[in-house]
Design brief:
Elements lengths: L4 H25 L4 H11 L1 H48 L1 H6 L20 H19 L3 H18 L18 H7 L15 H5 L7 H28 L1
Helix pairs in contact: 1-3, 2-3, 3-5
């Protein structure tokens, strides 16, 4: 995925062949003449050698096109999460940073999908773009992989701010932070908690995860009733005009 795919695939196939030969040598050292058995099979059945080469090439493709990109994506998620967590947490602990930059995003007590990118442009440049650059460079992603990572991050920002928890959401299969977790951060009683972007790890290690589900349920119920009462009061005022 660097412009030299055929060369890289052959390199991985060669590495796998060397690994297979090393394993045969180790087996021989245990008293099992595995190398001789392999040579006999290759002579008596030429297709055995061809099958081995095909298997090596298939394994090389699996490593090159699936395993390595998946590992890079996972590393990129962790790098972005770490960058965002500590900056996000610092914004909430510094009054000037919060009022100047981050308060705009917290105008959303009732989140909606596109609210994930509703923030101050300078904050967006430093927090979101910075996280993307660090994740891509730190993980060694190719251009193709970075496009997938960008699309995944955009989709996750939308689903995390949607206000809905979809049990079948494929985005949540790769992370431990979802809409239910992040929505608490947008509430008045939870904005000092749940700073994480993709994983709950840093929140739990540093004690900022909101774990009291019973209290959260009570607060949600209270706020819902207050919103309904405010809506009815507003409706009565409009009718009286």
């Amino acid at each position: 995925m660097t412009g030299y795919e055929d060369r890289d695939l052959l390199l991985w196939a060669r590495r796998l062949r060397l690994l297979r030969q090393s394993l045969l040598t180790l087996l021989s050292a245990t008293g099992l003449d595995a190398k001789t058995v392999s040579n006999l099979l290759s002579r008596s059945a030429p297709e055995f050698g061809q099958a081995a080469q095909s298997t090596e090439l298939l394994a090389a493709k699996t490593i090159y096109y699936i395993l390595i990109p998946a590992l890079r994506l996972y590393l990129a998620l962790w790098l972005a999460d770490t960058w965002v967590f500590f900056i996000h947490r610092f914004e909430h602990s510094n009054k000037w940073l919060y009022k100047t930059f981050h308060a705009r995003h917290h105008e959303l007590n009732v989140t909606y999908s596109w609210g994930g990118i509703y923030d101050h442009p300078i904050e967006s440049l430093f927090l979101s773009v910075g996280a993307f650059v660090i994740a891509v460079l730190g993980s060694g992603m190719s251009l193709r992989e970075s496009m997938v990572f960008s699309a995944f991050s955009s989709a996750k920002a939308c689903t995390d701010h949607s206000g809905y928890r979809f049990p079948w959401n494929p985005v949540d299969l790769f992370t431990t932070v979802g809409a239910e977790y992040h929505d608490k951060h947008h509430q008045r009683w939870g904005y000092k908690n749940n700073f994480a972007l993709h994983f709950q790890f840093w929140d739990r290690v540093l004690g900022t995860a909101y774990t009291d589900t019973e209290a959260a349920s009570r607060f949600y119920t209270r706020d819902r009733k207050a919103a309904e009462m405010a809506g009815r009061e507003k409706g009565r005022k409009i009718k009286s005009l």
